[in-house]
Design goal:
With 438 residues, the chain is of the alpha+beta class. It contains ten helices and 24 strands. It starts with 9 loop residues before the first strand and ends in a 29-residue tail after the last helix. Keywords: Membrane, Transmembrane, Transmembrane helix.
Length: 438
């Protein structure tokens, strides 16, 4: 997949953000990003198995000359807990082998890693193929499964088929299911649910319950189906699913209901409640995209917006923040205060080696807030810094004149907004905010 992107575009899913002035020679490159969920990654170690926690992501081409790191966000399906998981970032090398780049718990000067509940935000210098790999340390390690049930009529108008999917809880995995079901005319019958699946070696059982008697008949030996632990735990290669085949006794029967139980033995259970009209199903074949695309669009926890729709700090404000915080004062580098107030003060040595630490911090912050576009939190952080600097200035006012660097921060007042951010409100986006003029 190839497409030409502007320098401030967000590349689709496992989003990659290329800030301004990032490419030394932008006219020479077409940027490519590929996602691959169907990569086999199950490696035995002395302690257990390493498994893929999200899609493999490749960006390139190789040899891009970057002035500062690329910010990349990769979705994952682990309930991250340092006591239960050892999560590593790995990069593909020759012969389809993988090398460890870093553990997400470590601090490194070669790349930056920030984990949250559903995504991993990275700063990378080197193009290539990357993946998040997890090694369970205890049987309490949990990966999230997304459960969804689809239905469609069979070749015989009296037949009806239910398909239950259990896939990793990442946007890319579920979009693959939606694409498959859209092609076959499937209708999403219940909002997807999340099942915590523990690394306790126990299997997963899927059963159908409460099928209306005398109206519907379920084909024998299919009421309860089971997947082994390894099938579920290492399910990143293909969407894991099972099917239930039903037959109505009379063509006048147009309603169908049942419960689908998805349960891990000695673990958690989820119930998918199905209510549907068989007549509506046939109509849905003509508008089959509507129901599934709704969930595909609203369910994605990682944005795939590009170009002018991607969230980014207005350029002039971005430049003024960098000019302000990259300047040293009597207390040291101001970018450290910026990192602290934006809650990005882990692994400060990584930022310290950058030509513009503030620009790299803002790139990571933009990637972290692509979903919410929350400029208010940035404005609040800058205002708080301004108040801190104002208090420091008052304390020194009897000793020496106010320095120019303090003037840069301002006090957060309406007449002197902090770095121009006082103009922002809850209802404005990065694209609708008027740029700051000094």
């Amino acid at each position: 997949m190839a497409r030409r992107y502007n320098l401030t575009d967000t590349l689709p899913e496992a989003e990659t953000f290329l800030p301004c002035s990032k490419i030394i020679n932008p006219s020479a490159y077409i940027f490519r990003i590929n996602r691959c969920q169907c990569v086999c990654f199950s490696v035995q170690t002395e302690e257990g198995f390493e498994i893929l926690l999200g899609p493999e992501v490749t960006y390139g081409p190789p040899g891009i000359d970057l002035s500062r790191p690329v910010a990349m966000t990769i979705a994952h399906c682990a309930e991250v807990d340092a006591d239960n998981w050892n999560v590593q970032l790995k990069r593909k090398i020759q012969d389809n082998k993988w090398e460890e780049v870093m553990s997400v718990e470590d601090e490194s000067t070669s790349c930056y890693c920030l984990m949250d509940s559903s995504s991993c935000h990275l700063l990378l210098d080197q193009p290539g193929s990357y993946a998040l790999v997890g090694e369970p340390l205890t049987q309490a390690a949990v990966k999230r499964l997304k459960l969804a049930v689809f239905g469609s009529m069979g070749p015989n108008p009296m037949d009806y088929s239910l398909r239950v999917y259990c896939v990793d809880d990442t946007p890319h995995a579920f979009q693959g299911v939606v694409a498959t079901e859209t092609c076959r005319g499937g209708q999403l019958l219940e909002e997807p649910k999340i099942l915590p699946f523990r690394g306790n070696t126990f299997s997963l059982q899927v059963s159908i319950q409460d099928v209306p008697q005398f109206l519907w008949n379920i084909k024998p030996f299919t009421t309860c189906q089971e997947f082994s632990f390894s099938q579920v735990w290492c399910s990143n290669q293909q969407p894991l699913h099972c099917a239930f085949s039903l037959e109505r006794y009379s063509p006048t029967t147009t309603q169908f209901s049942c419960k689908i139980s998805v349960k891990q033995v000695k673990g958690h259970e989820q119930i998918l409640q199905v209510y549907t009209s068989v007549a509506e199903v046939s109509l849905a074949l003509r508008s089959k995209k509507e129901s599934v695309l709704f969930f595909m669009q609203t369910d994605c926890t990682v944005t795939s917006q590009t170009g002018p729709k991607a969230f980014k700090i207005p350029l002039s404000i971005h430049q003024r923040i960098c000019a302000t915080f990259d300047t040293a004062n009597t207390k040291g580098k101001d970018w450290q205060i910026l990192a602290q107030k934006l809650h990005l003060d882990r692994n400060l040595l990584y930022f310290a080696k950058q030509q513009s630490p503030s620009a790299v911090i803002l790139s990571l912050w933009e990637a972290q807030h692509q979903d919410t576009g929350d400029l208010d939190s940035l404005a609040s952080a800058l205002e708080e810094i301004g108040k801190i600097q104002s208090k420091s200035t008052v304390a020194k006012s009897h000793e020496e004149p106010e320095s120019d660097s303090v003037h840069h921060f301002g006090t957060g007042s309406p007449d002197n907004p902090v770095c121009g951010m006082g103009e922002l409100t809850n209802h404005e986006t990065a694209n609708s905010v008027p740029e700051y003029t000094s």
